[in-house]
Request: fold
Amino acid sequence: MTHDTDTFPDSAAATAGKSTSSVWDSIIGQTPVVEFLSRVANNPKDIAQSWLICGPAGSGRSNVAQAFAAALQCPHGGCGQCDTCRHIAAHTHPDVTVLATDRVTITIEQVRELMDKAEQMPSISPWRIIIIEDVDRMAERTTNVLLKDIEEPSEHTIWLLCAPSAQDVLPTIRSRTRIVNLAVPQTQAVAQFLMESTGVDEHKAKQYARLAQGHIGIARLYATQPEAARMRNDIVDKVVSMTRTSQAVLLADELFTSAQKQAQETVTEQVEHEQARFRSLNGLGAKDSIPPALRSMYNAIGKKDDVNRRITRLTRDVVDRGLTTLASIYRDVSVIHNDSEMVADLVNKEFLEQITDYSLRVKPNQALDAVGRISVARRRIAGNTPILLALEALFTSLIF
Reply:
């Protein structure tokens, strides 16, 4: 069965407002989508049971899926205040399952576990809802295992799949889902969110929103961890002044090493938090011994193989953030080449003089080629080429 694709206009009026439904309050810059999904949740009689929510990184597609799930399950249409809404937000609702992998790929075993759940009747709510974040991380064989349940879901089950775009999933999946496309949140909407959620002033909020290029998570990272913004700007500064192979190799190593360090620190903090939560839930103090009956579950939290997979995944994510910064340089160079500053604002305004000088060295076709090379590097890393090797090849190719 083929479902329609729902694409919504991206306008200032559409992206700046807020829905009156509380579960939607954290969804930034997606007012038309929120209004549409709210209507569906309020009248679910003929609801599609397989959805594909698409949007670029940072657009909030996983948050949209979770809010939609809450609106469907909540007796008040997504009030955000009841036990149902609170449990869904905390990922503790028995009828809403979220697969948010911290691995490089989603495994067949994980998908089969979801399929078993999908066959079960909901325990306390109208629906059993399965959310799969980053469904594009499935190998074709894994996707084929899921296909039957997507095509003919149990009458009480709703599947909410999330991906960057419909083209990132197999045609057999996208032809069997109702597709909803999210817009890139406008800078002003992201800036307003930063001011309200982090307390940064308007100037900083607008700066971080611009540097993040519509990625809400990265904008929040810059607002809460200024060191991340400084590291981002360091990449811009070094690329526009790069003239020797030795500089390119050194910059590649710096980016890779920094990504590894950030990933290691973040995963260590996550594991410590998960272990502390496990102790709390089981009535154990920080120094209490783990009872034998609980020891295997506790040890699984910090299992070496699992931790290493999480570090690998996060290292790739941090490197990818660096590649997005790199692409913004050549985007700005192209804007200058085309005298389009009045139409397309520069991302890296703080480096206007340096990028203007750089644009004199980089020809228009070279700027376009650079963007293509960045895409190639991304594909190589996704294909398990050693990250440092891919970065060295990329940066040395960008000496103009």
About this structure: The domain at 5-181 is CATH 3.40.50.300 (Rossmann fold). The chain is about 60% helix and 5% strand.
